[in-house]
Amino acid sequence: MKQINQYRGSTLHTKGWIQEAALRMLNNNLNPEVAENPDELIVYGGIGKAARNWESYEAIVRELKQLENDETLLIQSGKPVAVFRTHSDAPRVLIANSNLVPAWANWEHFQELEKRGLMMYGQMTAGSWIYIGSQGIVQGTYETFAELARQHFNRTLKGKITLTAGLGGMGGAQPLAVTMNEGVCIAIDVDPIRIKRRIKTRYLDISTDNVNEAIRLAKDAATKGQPLSIGLLGNAAEILPKMLEMGFIPDVLTDQTSAHDPLNGYIPANYTLDEAAELRSKNKKKYIQLSKKSIATHVKAMLEMQKQGAITFDYGNNIRQIAKDEGVENAFDFPGFVPAYIRPQFCEGKGPFRWVALSGDPEDIYKTDDVILNEFSYNESLCNWIRMAREKIAFQGLPSRICWLGYGERTRFGKIINEMVAKGKLKAPIVIGRDHLDSGSVASPNRETEGMKDGSDAVADWPILNALINAVGGASWVSVHHGGGVGMGYSIHAGMVIVADGTKEAEKRLERVLTTDPGMGVVRHADAGYELAIKTAKEKGVHIPMLTT
Ligand code: NAD
């Protein structure tokens, strides 16, 4: 295994805190506690990577260490390609990953380029160096299940059984999010190592390889109203049809296998992991055929369970599209999680805001937790979240925190953090960032922009504008990616990270970027005609030239 320096503390290894932050975050993405397969530079989400290859990784590290405070490093699909003199308020790094001209934007063409060393799949936060492990998604997952519980079950999942699959980097958040909502979760995964990892990091309670036992344990806990999460070893495309035969229908049903990438992210039914790996290397075409066939079986079983009463939704892995392409005509009968549960939050510019303590000291995060509890005490669910996160979420790699904050709140909090750094209340600067899955940074018709009110689902100008305005405002690094979440051809999205280093200049940059970034979410949804976004824009003074209603 390659040794990667996990720098901590307040000593710089670069010429400035922004470069240092980029270096520490790149390395954090590849920390074995954080990344799913660091030996292959794979961070999460199928083959989402932090750098194109080890040679590129070394070159990025070298360049970041030499980079001046008025220079900008350019990254093209995980490879450093240029350094230009810009200015001190400009981003130190600009990143473009996996972007293809639309008519070529498919897995086949990407795989060909990847084989020739010309491209890398950046997923969302993998190639943009702001992945923080499963905790990065856990509040979003928690909020999704909480909203589902509000809509369908008296505000709690108590006594209800959720069935899902996929215990990878993101999917691994599901069992904890369900138990935080007081429910019971059966989470299927074909890989015993993933199950063990989630147990070790307290995302999962127990495991079994026996379907009967999983159902018995789940029913027992549900009857007693006790939260419990059970990892079930096996293949979802085999287990769901078996559960149907047994007459077991869960209350809630979803999936987070990496179905967006049938070659690298989904194991075909009746294949062991070793057999699958062998087939993948020997006969890609056959692998993809079998994988897609299994995805179709999986989705058919989900549709049948839905018919028999399970509240069913797609959890952002494009599984419906693949099944539809395989002939499952009604694959889209169950909704995606964004239109079903999340969109109102996007209308207020709310999304998965996150911050990381570069010192490596958990105390720095606890101090910022206290700020949320004091400064945002009017927001009860936010404060509950912070208290729960503190108690239940184990740090992976650099200590970090996530919470959904909206327009206005992000700027306020960012400036407070910067002041804490300036006053020496924290041991080192803080990195502030977010998932690309946010209110104004994604065009993804099967996910974030599914079923937009005005039919603008596939309009991809928005994430590009998001990246441009954040770069102009002085974000520390900005990225534009293609294919994250749902796979090649199905999404364009932008990331941004900004460092609070305690300087006056950082304060101004934070004020600009943490306003424009969620502001784009408000604008995008107001433009599509969402009342809540229009109201938010009016109340908060977001200037939208042609807003008439
Ligand atoms: P990952 O690649 O780290 O994990 C996928 C998991 O699925 C692995 O543990 C694998 O063993 C398991 N798996 C594959 N085929 C299986 C099968 N047939 N049966 C059972 N288990 C199987 O991916 P991840 O980071 O957890 O992301 C999962 C999916 O969710 C991706 O498609 C990703 O793009 C999407 N995603 C969703 C959100 C969201 O908020 N909903 C956010 C990010 C990513």
UniProtKB/TrEMBL annotation:
<dbReference type="InterPro" id="IPR055351">
    <property type="entry name" value="Urocanase"/>
</dbReference>
<dbReference type="InterPro" id="IPR036190">
    <property type="entry name" value="Urocanase_sf"/>
</dbReference>
<feature type="binding site">
    <location>
        <position position="485"/>
    </location>
    <ligand>
        <name>NAD(+)</name>
    </ligand>
</feature>
<feature type="binding site">
    <location>
        <position position="194"/>
    </location>
    <ligand>
        <name>NAD(+)</name>
    </ligand>
</feature>
<feature type="domain" description="Urocanase C-terminal">
    <location>
        <begin position="344"/>
        <end position="538"/>
    </location>
</feature>
<feature type="domain" description="Urocanase Rossmann-like">
    <location>
        <begin position="133"/>
        <end position="341"/>
    </location>
</feature>
<feature type="domain" description="Urocanase N-terminal">
    <location>
        <begin position="5"/>
        <end position="130"/>
    </location>
</feature>
<dbReference type="InterPro" id="IPR023637">
    <property type="entry name" value="Urocanase-like"/>
</dbReference>
<dbReference type="InterPro" id="IPR035401">
    <property type="entry name" value="Urocanase_C"/>
</dbReference>
<keyword id="KW-0369">Histidine metabolism</keyword>
<feature type="active site">
    <location>
        <position position="403"/>
    </location>
</feature>
<feature type="binding site">
    <location>
        <position position="189"/>
    </location>
    <ligand>
        <name>NAD(+)</name>
    </ligand>
</feature>
<comment type="pathway">
    <text>Amino-acid degradation; L-histidine degradation into L-glutamate; N-formimidoyl-L-glutamate from L-histidine: step 2/3.</text>
</comment>
<dbReference type="InterPro" id="IPR035085">
    <property type="entry name" value="Urocanase_Rossmann-like"/>
</dbReference>
<dbReference type="InterPro" id="IPR035400">
    <property type="entry name" value="Urocanase_N"/>
</dbReference>
<dbReference type="Pfam" id="PF17392">
    <property type="entry name" value="Urocanase_C"/>
</dbReference>
<feature type="binding site">
    <location>
        <begin position="45"/>
        <end position="46"/>
    </location>
    <ligand>
        <name>NAD(+)</name>
    </ligand>
</feature>
<keyword id="KW-0963">Cytoplasm</keyword>
<keyword id="KW-0520">NAD</keyword>
<feature type="binding site">
    <location>
        <begin position="266"/>
        <end position="267"/>
    </location>
    <ligand>
        <name>NAD(+)</name>
    </ligand>
</feature>
<feature type="binding site">
    <location>
        <position position="315"/>
    </location>
    <ligand>
        <name>NAD(+)</name>
    </ligand>
</feature>
<feature type="binding site">
    <location>
        <position position="123"/>
    </location>
    <ligand>
        <name>NAD(+)</name>
    </ligand>
</feature>
<protein>
    <recommendedName>
        <fullName>Urocanate hydratase</fullName>
        <ecNumber>4.2.1.49</ecNumber>
    </recommendedName>
</protein>
<comment type="similarity">
    <text>Belongs to the urocanase family.</text>
</comment>
<feature type="binding site">
    <location>
        <begin position="169"/>
        <end position="171"/>
    </location>
    <ligand>
        <name>NAD(+)</name>
    </ligand>
</feature>
<comment type="function">
    <text>Catalyzes the conversion of urocanate to 4-imidazolone-5-propionate.</text>
</comment>
<dbReference type="GO" id="GO:0016153">
    <property type="term" value="F:urocanate hydratase activity"/>
</dbReference>
<dbReference type="InterPro" id="IPR038364">
    <property type="entry name" value="Urocanase_central_sf"/>
</dbReference>
<dbReference type="Pfam" id="PF01175">
    <property type="entry name" value="Urocanase"/>
</dbReference>
<dbReference type="InterPro" id="IPR023636">
    <property type="entry name" value="Urocanase_CS"/>
</dbReference>
<dbReference type="Pfam" id="PF17391">
    <property type="entry name" value="Urocanase_N"/>
</dbReference>
<feature type="binding site">
    <location>
        <begin position="235"/>
        <end position="236"/>
    </location>
    <ligand>
        <name>NAD(+)</name>
    </ligand>
</feature>
<feature type="binding site">
    <location>
        <begin position="256"/>
        <end position="260"/>
    </location>
    <ligand>
        <name>NAD(+)</name>
    </ligand>
</feature>
<keyword id="KW-0456">Lyase</keyword>
